[in-house]
């Protein structure tokens, strides 16, 4: 096995022992690899619990990601009201000594889910209603703590079988008011000449609007994205939204997000909910959708609404 700082693959069965804290983790399998690191599914030896463990290629990048996670954790603890689940996202930070090198790693909650795109391919694009609502809930929690996610893209959104969303990859999270640290062209407001790269809730809402366009009208988005920067603009996106039939149920929401007109993420979430309710009612009155499917879908919407209620009103 060749190990360099930019290429580190550890086989299943390897035990990663933290240099400072001594905790031991047994690697089960590779979960994924990105620009900033490798993520493994691991079993904590003392508890037999499953976690995700991320090892960094670049110590500084990983450290700043860890700093953000710690800051979020501190704020969540202080606020105490954003749901117990989130308090334990970051589990541990340590170094791993491997072939004479110190490799930094952190351990986080293992998120069992499918990336948004494959989830919708398997379940049907209608499930964007449920997943989108859950995503807006997640963003609202983050925004309320004073942070912007930044690098919102389909790969960073994992969805559970019931449509509940978890964001992964906090490497792009920035404090509101600062510059966005990490972004991906298509979902970046600056790329479309639609605003600056200041971290603020409207930045994430814009990205989510482009994510929706990407998922439901990819060929048109691809076409618009190849325009030169001088000719590429937010109106290209607005034109797609007005023309593409698959986007019509979301039109009002997408227009407001692209124009940066939501006053808050709560308002964006509320409008999303209204448009979902409208669709459910319309379908009920005219579509021959099997009752079981409508039942499962409505149950998921209800579960999300309950989760929201307990999170924000308790
Ligand atoms: N907590 C988690 N639970 C389950 N899988 C995860 C988790 N975190 C990351 N992954 C998987 O590992 C992959 C890479 O992780 P991540 O996106 O954090 O790496 P990255 O190097 O920052 O990626 P990018 O190049 O997108 O910035 C993800 O696409 C996902 O499949």
From TrEMBL:
SMART domains in alphabetical order: S_TKc (SM00220)
Record-annotated membrane-spanning stretches: 292-313
Annotated positions binding ATP: 54
EC number assigned by the record: 2.7.11.1
Catalytic activity: L-threonyl-[protein] + ATP = O-phospho-L-threonyl-[protein] + ADP + H(+); L-seryl-[protein] + ATP = O-phospho-L-seryl-[protein] + ADP + H(+)
Any one Gene Ontology molecular-function term assigned to this protein's record: kinase activity
Record's keyword terms, sorted: ATP-binding, Kinase, Membrane, Nucleotide-binding, Serine/threonine-protein kinase, Transferase, Transmembrane, Transmembrane helix
Enzyme class, broadest EC rank: transferase
PROSITE patterns (alphabetical): PROTEIN_KINASE_ATP, PROTEIN_KINASE_DOM
A Pfam family: Pkinase
Protein's recorded name: non-specific serine/threonine protein kinase
Gene field: yabT
